[in-house]
Amino acid sequence: SWTCNMTSDFISKWYNNLTVAVDQQCNRNQAPAVYVSWNNNITAILDGTTATESYCFRADEDASQKYLHFKDLEFRNWKPGDENGGGIVAWHNIDVLIEFCKFTNSGRGVWLASGRARVYDCEFVDVFRGAYHQYHCKINNLRNTYTNTGGVGTAVHMGRLSAGHIRECTFSGHHTNIEATQNCRLRTISNNH
Fold first, then answer.
1. Which residues contact 183 (CB under 8 A, 6 or more apart)?
2. Could you tell me the CA-to-CA distances from 12 to 19, 26, 84, 137, 153 in Å, in that order?
3. Is 11 a residue whose pLDDT tops 60?
4. Selection from 72, 164, 78 nearest residue 129 by Cα
5. If DSSP states are collapsed to H, E and C, what string results for the chain?
6. Whole-prediction pTM value?
7. Distance of alpha carbon 74 from alpha carbon 72, whole angstroms
8. Which residues are CB-contacts of 113 (< 8 A; sequence separation ≥ 6)?
9. How far is the first Cα of the chain from the last one, in angstroms, to the nearest whole number?
């Protein structure tokens, strides 16, 4: 396991390396894939304490990635107390799979919009907004743990015509555990509040 204090230079190199890997391995007839993956143990801690950027990983409308897979990473100290910063943000029809990751002391854990979001077996500790989904996002949250010692924030948010499932998750200490707004469809199954 290694820890890296995030700087803008490191983030740029990390992001560019992911983009280069996508460009080298895929052609226009295939959906690009980015894998940041190990073996179900946290093997890298991405610490945003000294970062100038708001998010550790960000893919917006201009992103070339169409499929992102994050696994076995800890995102720590990304703009704590500020919901305009966090671990991962991905917008605009990107298929995102996040497995066995941990989000600690950050504004947001993941912010995913207008794509497909699968968040499995993750832990969110003292994150103001844990998993935030909006703009026609298709979601599946499975076996995640959301813990907030401050009694503030929202563990899972769905908004603006999103639809999906929250299943077998554990919630503790948030002001709001599950929030669905603006014409969302949500099914909750076997969660522990």
1. 160, 161
2. 10, 21, 19, 27, 30
3. no
4. 78
5. CEEEECCHHHHHHHHHHHHHHHHHHCCCCCCCEEEECCCCCCCEEEECCCCCCCEEEEECCCCCCCEEEEECEEEECCCCCCCCCEEEEECCCCEEEEECCEEEEEEEEEEEECCEEEEECCEEEEEEEEEEEECCCEEEEECCEEECCCCCCEEEEEECCCEEEEECCEEECCCEEEEECCCCEEEEECCEC
6. 0.79
7. 7
8. 90, 91, 92, 133, 134, 135, 136, 137
9. 32
Q: Cβ(59)–Cβ(68) under 8 Å?
A: yes
pLDDT of res. 8: 42
Tokens of residue 10, six digits: 């490191």
Contact (Cβ atoms closer than 8 angstroms) between residue 49 and residue 4: no
> What's the pLDDT band for 63 if we cut at 50, 70, 90?
low
Q: Which two tokens stand for residue 90?
A: 């991905």
The sign of the dihedral angle between the CA atoms of 14, 147, 132, 128 is: negative
CA 56, 59, 61, 63 torsion: positive or negative? positive
